[in-house]
Amino acid sequence: MAETTNLNPEEEKVFDPLDMNNYKVEKLPKMQKSGFEKWMARLGGPLAILVFVLIYWLLDIGFLNDITADALTGDKAIKRLDTLGLADFIRSNYAMLAIFAAAIVLWVTEAIPNYLTSLLVILGTVLTGVLPQKEAFAQLGHPVMWLNILSFVLASMLVKTKVAKRFALWFVLRFGKNASGIFFSFIIINLVLSMFISATTVKATILLPIFMVVAAIYGASNGNRNNFGRNLVLQNLFAVNIGASGFMTGSGANLLAVSLIAGVVGGYTISYTDWLYAALPLALILLFLGWFIGAKVIFPLKKEERVPQIEGGMERLKEELKAMGKVTFDEIKSVAIFVGVLLLWVTKSWHGIDETTVAFIGAVVALMPGIGIVKWNDVDIPWHLMLFSAGAYVLGSGLNATDLHVTIVDTVFDSLGITANTPYWVLYVVLTGFMLISALVFSSKNMRTMIFVPIAIATAQKFGYPIMSLAFPVALLIEHVYVLPFNSKPAALLYTTNHYSWSDTFKFGITMMGIAWVLILLWGETVLKWLGFTPGLF
User: Fold this and answer.
1) Are 187 and 211 in contact (CB under 8 A)?
2) Among 211, 147, 200, which residue's Cα sits nearest to residue 348?
3) What is this structure's pTM?
């Protein structure tokens, strides 16, 4: 007698490409580490220890030994020198370089979780005397850290009430009447969500089931790739990141850059509107260029890809929207709270209340029993990212306390023959170029921010330019992490949709990165000059 197999009802069920439940993040295949990445992870721990020991105890580093009081530019470093004396101050520079280098090794190789590396950084700065214990631990209470946390509280309102999902579905159904309408709709949706949600992965997670169903309607599903699907997913990856670049609160890395600059400049910080005026027009231009380059040049749509392949497919999205029911009072309240927060951010120059305090007001209202929307247990705060950020802030504080970034820049530039006679535009081109290229190597926006924003700050200090003239353009390029699947969490997530290959994402991504570089150069000569951030390139 032949054996019979009792199939699970789920196994018997035929895959429905228009069912959003099939595209939940937990159902997508996980991107596995390559053999090289596994090897790097195993090597990372011992290598980090070796790097630390060599720098801190064994190597004789000439440019650190040559530090003098006259060479220091930062007030914090000068005060630290006065407190410690020259010999101990030089030893603190050795310690800071050792901690910084070891942290970079651990972050790049991912030998241990990123948050654990940050905790080791905090511990290391205290044990080696780079920072006093009180100062190091106080970074956990950094105002920008609080702004980050509170932004997640506010974003949780939109996720819990599903108002973000409702808006996305409604917008696609209202304006996505054809292929171009679909692409434009997701551009606008990503921009709007970037105003409210400071985590790019969260945005990608919300939108992924929607654009996967739309891709299926246009003939891309079950491993069947076409240019519509390539464009839709790659352009959403691009928009998730570039949309975030348009707003100071668009990501934690943007906020980290703000805190690094503010830590050096002193009382002046980049306001929400400073960032908005400089970055949002640039983001809009890049997003629409991304659509044109993708859908018209690199992956042009065939005639049959411009119209739905499944008759009545968009009706499934209508059903999904209908199933959400009528707009609830909680949804209305969540929108009202966030719009109120945005208005207060934008009008800071009128009332003088800083961004963190405004976020506090919004979070308190959102959590308030009776009138609020969310309970604390409903709030999704990625504490591992907060700890990672805290470590980055401590590194920044340590660099300011030692002036190490300035010392390194002085040494490197002197060896390259870059002198006081080097034109500003050369520095601008080099720094923005390195910031963009770094996205091809590093997998963390925070790490790139931590490395290149201080370098830009140190370069400005060395050559006597305003800090913002070089640090701000570099900060505007933080979100360009879309070229390869390992460049960011959204990139890794969307690669698992199987709508494009490595070569597809590289062709589109590297093209847009080149365009972004050209645009940031034009921006330095025009918009950033008009806003008073740069002297102009020529």
Assistant:
1) no
2) 147
3) 0.87
